[in-house]
Design a protein that fits this description.
Layout (H helix, E strand, L loop, with lengths): L11 H10 L7 H20 L4 H10 L1 H17 L1 H6 L19 E3 H11 L34 H5 E3 L2 H8 L7 E3 L2 H16 L7 E3 H9 L4 H8 L4 H13 L1
Helix pairs in contact: 1-2, 1-9, 2-9, 4-9, 6-10, 9-12, 10-11
The structure holds iron/sulfur cluster (2 copies).
Length: 249
């Protein structure tokens, strides 16, 4: 049987051509077009700055590009909507949103998983979120109910906001109260990840991970390699997360 020809090397031409064709079945035209424009701008800037296509592909695969671009969108939304920050109930020590009732705590990228691991592995053996609530994130400090990896917390934690902490508490106990949700840039983040995976197909693997499993493994003292292996999602999880998100809005 003839062997498969080796994949052609990554080039900016290849990445741009794939980006122009890529679609995200879960999201509509507007969301896809916005993410496509953000990534096109990123590729143009990276090429102009003299970055190699291989390095750019690595950064895309780690999820770091999607996160940086989504952070910029978050900053734009926040600057344009003073009411958003004025009206939210989120405060230090309020941690009902750090209780994982179902699922695996949310989807994080490799860059986020490694950042969390670096922040949490030094705390191995100390009381974790489980000492406060059986379903709390292991990254939580059970005494202060603050995140012990605050600067490294992933996009899902940064995106989640609420105007009503009592509603969050009710939901943490299995309720269905209104008042909480994700900031608008979270859909851009997911779209950026989905498009990044499409344009890297066959060249790099954009993997995703479970926040819950990664935090548990890191605080249990696992190495970064072992924690990533424990927390790694099946490839379909990104698509399912995009579909769930689209259904929820
Ligand atoms: S999202 Fe809800 S539980 Fe989390 S900090 Fe804000 S008000 Fe508190
Ligand atoms: S990483 Fe931090 S902010 Fe995110 S769920 Fe865990 S304790 Fe809460």
């Amino acid at each position: 049987m003839p062997s498969k020809p080796p994949a052609a090397p990554v080039s900016f031409r290849l990445l741009n051509a794939r980006l122009a064709r890529a679609t995200i079945p879960a999201f509509g035209y507007g969301v896809t077009a916005r993410a496509r424009a953000l990534l096109a701008g990123y590729l143009a800037r990276a090429e102009q700055a003299g970055q190699t296509p291989e390095a750019v592909a690595d950064t895309l695969a780690s999820g770091a590009t999607a996160r940086a671009l989504a952070d910029e969108v978050t900053a734009e939304i926040t600057a344009a909507s003073p009411a958003l920050t004025r009206d939210i109930a989120c405060r230090s020590g309020c941690a009902w949103c750090c209780i994982f009732l179902e699922g695996d705590g949310g989807l994080i990228t490799e860059a986020e998983a490694l950042g969390l691991h670096a922040a949490l592995s030094a705390l191995a053996g100390q009381p974790d979120g489980g000492s406060w609530h059986p379903n709390a994130c292991a990254a939580l400090d059970p005494a202060t109910r603050n995140c012990r990896a605050y600067d490294a917390r992933p996009m899902i934690c940064r995106s989640f906001i609420s105007t009503d902490a009592d509603a969050c508490r009710e939901n943490a106990e299995g309720g269905d109260a209104e008042g909480s949700g994700t900031i608008g840039s979270h859909i851009d983040y997911l779209a950026l990840l989905a498009l990044s995976r499409e344009i890297l197909r066959g060249r790099r693997n954009l993997a995703t991970y479970s926040l819950d499993r990664l935090a548990c493994a890191a605080t249990a003292g696992a190495t970064a390699e072992a924690a990533l292996a424990t927390a790694r999602h099946a490839p379909r999880e990104l698509r399912l997360t995009c579909e769930d998100f689209a259904d929820s809005i």
